[in-house]
Amino acid sequence: MSTTTSTDQVLRAHAEQAYADELAALAAVDDRPRPPQWKLSPWAVSTYLLGGTLKDGTAISAKYLGNRRLIEIAIASLATDRALLLLGVPGTAKSWVSEHLAAAISGNSTLVVQGTAGTPEEAIRYGWNYARLLAEGPSEAALVPGPVMRAMADGGLVRVEELTRIPADVQDSLITILSEKTLPIPELDTEVQARRGFNLIATANNRDKGVNDLSSALRRRFTTVVLPLPDSLDQEIEIVQTRVASLGASLELPADLAELSEIRRVVTVMRELRSGQTADGRTTIKSPSSTLSTAEAISVMTSGLSLATHFGEGRVGAEEVAAGLVGAVVKDPIQDTVIWQEYLETVVRNRPEWADLYRACRDLETAN
Ligand SMILES: Nc1ncnc2c1ncn2[C@@H]1O[C@H](COP(=O)(O)OP(=O)(O)OP(=O)(O)O)[C@@H](O)[C@H]1O
Ligand SMILES: [Mg+2]
Fold first, then answer.
1. CATH of the domain at 222
2. What is the pLDDT confidence band of residue 3, given thresholds at 50, 70 and 90?
């Protein structure tokens, strides 16, 4: 069985596949010094993430919209031997930035450890092919290298998602790797020494409850970059618009049905509920338990787009976003319903230009 599928068949291409043209165009004009094993110079990596126009006229799309300096600090850290920790509340593009950094720097964003409460040490180090281990005893052929070991051997980047969910003792196995840059294999009386170019990008959510905080020994080995929520309404609208357009294209949904005015409205609702006050600062409202991040606004608009395309009258309007909005806001059926009702009655209802949204949300309740 072949496990490779052509890129236009996969549901979601890896960054290095989806943006192969941009990466090639950058490599072609990039004459600045590259750190060992890097596919691009730090300048080209930052242009890939932040967007720009190359001297040959090629347009590079912005992957990350926000503070340029944060991205530069992240890249500069990866060019040293310090690992990078991207920290932030959910939906602030930590995983997204990590994937694009790995794609631009090593041309491979697929070496990933997904951190969970059950992540075992083998997922970070190596495991065994047990049939072989039993038949032949420990040997290099029976060893199954994990993503970290592969990145060390290749001199590339490895990503660790949700680092703080990983149990503390397993997290600590990263300390030797990050400080000594070796991974001992006592069973074979050998070790893997990291090749130049090896580094690690971890992401962690600073909102998650019950997480395993990083030990100070481990934290010291990282440069921490905190990715913030978007500063302004306009910036957040731009992020949602860009992402909805590109998700729409990959799902073959016509993104131009999602008009800017509707995106503005969805983002406004999210920001108001998140910040606990209306955009004009006049009314205080309660915030629901859910995190209403940019990512939620993106999915409300994308599902609205699907509704409009398949069942609607050709544009994303109040009816198409209402269900998605309620679903995003009401995560706790009791508390959040009360908060949402209050917002609906005190804010949405009092905005004459939002009458259609008020009606669509009320209609949903009576339909239930
Ligand atoms: N500033 C931004 N620039 C570009 N895209 C953004 C920005 N903020 C959020 N997004 C978009 O939001 C979506 C969610 O991002 P992502 O999954 O990376 O969040 P996360 O920080 O890893 O969240 P979690 O903590 O839940 O894992 C992505 O599609 C990303 O494109
Ligand atoms: Mg993430």
1. 3.40.50.300
2. low
